[in-house]
Amino acid sequence: MGYARLTQKVLVETKSTEKDIDKCLKWREGRVRNDGTVDESVQKVYAECVTLSQSSETSSCRDILSKALNVREYSGRVRGMGLGVTQTTLNKGQKRSEKNPSNRELMAIIQNISSEVEELKKERGKDIARSQQDMHIVSDKDSSNVDVLKNIPEGISPCSPYLLSPTYRIVAKGMVHNILGDKLHHKPLPVGYLKVSIDIAFEKDAELPIPDDDADIRLVGDAIGTYVAWQRNLISLNLEVK
């Protein structure tokens, strides 16, 4: 009987998995006669294998069979396992099985990370929606005389400069100077900024978009009566309602 069929026979009789098959038992079964009997010498070797497996620290069937048969074992060969079977192929399935728990743990970690990323995306989306909503809300106090314009006309106009953080809000009132080529303290204005004079500070401790380190002006309250650079898209014009 070939070793493949023999393996299936042992699996059925012992109701075990292939990796759990007693290799010494498989060696013995491969030498059973057609009438079902076992040669005395074969049975003696098998009994010796059983004794060695119980009393020795040797865990390899190859080593046990070699000792029981009292023969020299050659490198790469697994005695009693059939033609072409080596220790590498014999242990291949076992090594793969040992790695499976780690693979399952890795998949669980990946799934947990994916879930956390999705939750973060949802929370981020909610934060963006709230920020956009705050940007479009104007308090009742200022809704009658404040209009947010994308385009600021040339010249000097009354304005209310805003800040975005921590909320979208008015922090002062003053005048916006939208004059081509205008400079701030003899320096060109940054791209996207206009010159604003601060007349009234609603939040004196709010930090300016661009502090003036030379004049030690860093807060809105410090800028009263002087000029500062303010982002164009954060400047609202004060329009009187007719």
UniProtKB/TrEMBL annotation:
One Pfam family per UniProt: DUF8039
Q: Which residues form the DUF8039 domain?
A: 151-237
Task: Return the InterPro entries for the record.
Answer: DUF8039 (IPR058352)
Q: Which domain of life is it from?
A: Eukaryota
Entries under PANTHER family matching the protein:
OS10G0338966 PROTEIN-RELATED (PTHR33018), TRANSPOSASE, PTTA_EN_SPM, PLANT (PTHR33018:SF31)
Which named protein is this?
Answer: DUF8039 domain-containing protein
Q: Which organism is it from?
A: Medicago truncatula (Barrel medic)
